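Hi all, long-time lurker, first post. I run a small reading group and we've been trying to get comfortable going from sequence to structure in the token notation. Rather than ask abstract questions, I figured I'd post a concrete chain and ask someone more experienced to write out its structure so we can walk through it together at our next meeting. Sequence below, copied exactly:
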Amino acid sequence: MTILGNLVKGVLQAVDLVTNERNPVEEQKQVLNELLKEATTTAFGKQYDFNAILNADDTARTFAATVPFFDYYRINKQWWSKQHQENLENVTWPGYPDYYALSSGTTGKTSKRIPVTDAMIKSIQNAGVQQVLALKNFDLPADFFEKGILMLGSSTDLTQRKGHLEGEISGISASNIPSWFRGYYKPGQDIAEIDDWDERVTKIVAQAPSWDIGALSGIPSWMELMLKEVIRAHKLNHIHEIWPNLRVFTSGGVAFGPYEKSFNALMGKPMTIIDTYLASEGFIAFQSRPETNAMQLVTDNGIYFEFIPFETEAIKEDGSLAQTAKSVGLDEVRLGQDYVLVLSTVAGAWRYMIGDTVEFTNVERAEIKITGRTKFFLNTVGSQLSVNKLNDGVGHLEERYKIQIPEYTLCAKKYEDGFYHTWYLGTEQVADHEIAETLDVFLKKANKNYRVARSKALKGVKVRIVDPEIFHEWSAASKKKGGQVKMERVMSEEKFEGWEKFVKRFQNEST
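-- Answer (accepted) --
Happy to help. Here is the structure in token form:
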């Protein structure tokens, strides 16, 4: 009898009964006030006179009019470098950060050091608890709450540097898991500390038969690779032969859509997929109900959100924000509009653009979906394609040709006769020769700006079919396997030239 599982499920339902109805707008007002009060005596708070902002008639508008926008490079040069290079305290947040999250994102560089304070650790943990509480909405059986949770992130063996520890945010989070969660947590501390991805996966494969896994958590591409290794090593038809109670996959880092078909091909039973939005800057949102795959912003937990309509005049050519751009709060956002996401946090980020764009699917519930990156909107010749629209195009190809395309990248590349959107699709199946035309037709119907661009400077679409393994090897060569590493969907021409050379070299070595 699943006594513990029934007890946990009962607690979740009881908590729901005593929880007041959420008011995201009011929660955000309170968060902004708390952030400003806490940071009033910091160097940043003094320079921008947080006391005066707090005493203003409209705190939010005064805050927006007083504090400029920052991206990583600006805030690091002016403020954060004083912490991690000069060891100064009380710079943008009281005290000194105990951790820095190394963020490579999709740039291939690991030079970004995002401060992670004790307050941010608590914020991430609180958001995790909120996500656990939301599981009551997914109609899971009681015995699910007794199973292990396999979290596949970066290494928890953090690096000591100048009085703080450094690592990727998933490794920092896993190294600070609450004591009550440790009994559920897999692969366990010893394996999680292994830095080498292949060695860590080997250990997971060896231990897999002894675990009763109910949930998986991680970036889809690396999770797939790990599952394939478990299946191959133990000669399985699918992963449920070794983990029959596996029911949930908590996906993070990238949109799950492009991986859905290839991921489900590894399963023997239907899975509940729950999207999450954990960035180096904080735990931003998670899917709280099964009726939608949109994610609910965590609006009461140390992060204040602003939204800038994604329009040409708001974004510079390098992808950064123009200081003249106007932000809106939760009380002003509307459906059907892409917004650049801006954060102020308990880690000392202020009006900070993390580079993601989002769209609201439900304003009242503060539910969003990620639509792309400010630098990766494909707009070289006016096509204005978001990553979300690119994913839709790939999904259409999967459905039309009954194939799996877990990875892709593209570039608006200039040829002798003009610009072509040049796609590399990672699929193990041979695609129909009409795939480029099919993709072109779909995007014309899905996006009016693309349709206009195709009648002018954009000459057409070119498609190259490659082994999906190339994408993983590219990540391993240019960055690092596993963890928070994600494949860039849209590349600059310079980056794309390196990619094409890498593909050619990989293919020559494989033959």
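A couple of things your group might point at:
The two ends are 56 Å apart (CA to CA).
Residues 493-510 form the longest helix (18 residues).
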